[in-house]
Design a protein that fits this description.
553 residues; alpha/beta; globular
Length: 553
Amino acid sequence: MNSVEQKKEQLKEEIKVAVIQAGLASESEIPEVILESPKDKAHGDYATNMAMQLARIAKKAPRAIAEDIKANLDMDKASIKQIDIAGPGFINFFMETSYLNELIPMILEKGSDYGKSSNKNEKIQVEFVSANPTGSLHLGHARGAAYGDTLCNILERAGYEVSREYYINDAGNQIHNLALSLEARYMQALGMEKEMPEDGYQGQDIVQFGKDLAEKDGDRLLELDEKERYQYFRDYGLERELEKLKKDLAEFGVEFDVWFSETSLYTSGKIDKVLAKLHERGETFEEDGATWFRSTEYGDDKNRVLIKGDGSYTYLTPDISYHQDKLDRGFDKLINIWGADHHGYIPRMKAAIEALGYKREQLEVEIIQMVNLFKDGEKMKMSKRTGKAVTLRELMDEVGIDAMRYFFSMRSSDSHLDFDMDLAVSRSNENPVYYVQYAHARVCSMLRQGKEMELKEDADLSLISSEKEIDLLKKLGELPEAIAEAADKRMTHRITNYAFELAAALHSFYNAERVLDPENLQLSAARFKLMQAVQQTIQNTLEIIGVSAPEKM
């Protein structure tokens, strides 16, 4: 816990003590102390609505309660300089700020670990992207990849043990069609007439795979029996598509710890085991020749078929088996990141978790809404290059990874995102990723100049006292709290907002103060240390988002 967090916690404790001493409530009756940072600095460093929260318990007017709290607060112990009561009973606190200077050496000592919290002893598995391996990743997948990876980074820094997982849908009809499509393209590459299957994949990648096979194997594959040939095309197509997915994701800065095959659920007998478990627990019944799951017992709107009349499984059956497998691996919490089209699937999966004997809260689902691309002020529906949907690869080539990672993380995942391609590549302060990266490059430039001045290492940090310096220090101190809140609420945009606010505080300080002054080497040495702390904090923050921190721009 850094000095800012400590002072905040100390203030909360002193407010509780004041409430008890004033006879307003007993310790067990005191609601959670909420401290907010007012947007207007004229309203202090922190504000609380505790007086309003206590009105019913204390049976007094909020303003009178606020006066009682003020009268009983130990201002020295809580490091308070001034207390104001505003409006219906808000209490505004103006804090002593000398303790803020302790932040600088602490940030420099922790370095890349600044912002991290201690181990929570909780294992979280995050499953995201999980696109069918039958073509290129589109913008929805790209947003899910950026959100999922950034969320994992946040959770790791908040002290959780995190595993990133990609579920490969390699057992369904899509892979069957992939195999048939590849067989057709292979035969066409050999100069034979072969129609594409009705639901075949028309992408150029399948055409190329067919040509590659024809070149590598000639007509050898035609000599294989039908079953063996089908399996060869299935395995080859799946391997090539996964290779392409992994390459695109790795370039996008997203690496997975586990690639889990749906087929393995069938070959290992895990589906049969989970069906037997549900049956033993009385969670299934037979009707109309099918096996049903009593999902309405757990809040679903209707019961769901697990085994159809023809003996085949519905999509839900391997999914239940997969989630049992996740829980068998010892995860305390499962977070699935799904596209908006899966929203209706959530109640039945939560029902399954509960029916298997777990708490439904152990499964969380975060929904990723659609991305709308804009260029030249107009909405882009298709790629101008291919006439098809814009892919992750194309957008990376157009606007770069940094802009994509930042833009995809800067809005709540469950809200639609309008992605302005012109803004994403502009070198202006209107472009938030440029604005933050430029702040980092500006600091690096100052640090290079400072090293040439051979400033004293043991700087007097008490000289850091101007209004803009204090604002900057306060913002530096907020990173651990921002990470903790982002982890708790699964809000990646809390970190992009913080990055922008820190950059704004840096630019504001730079415009108001002379950082390096040959006429005042003592102050320059102190501000050099402050800039080192800023550089480290911006770098740590951008690393969480998956954005580079350039030293020159």
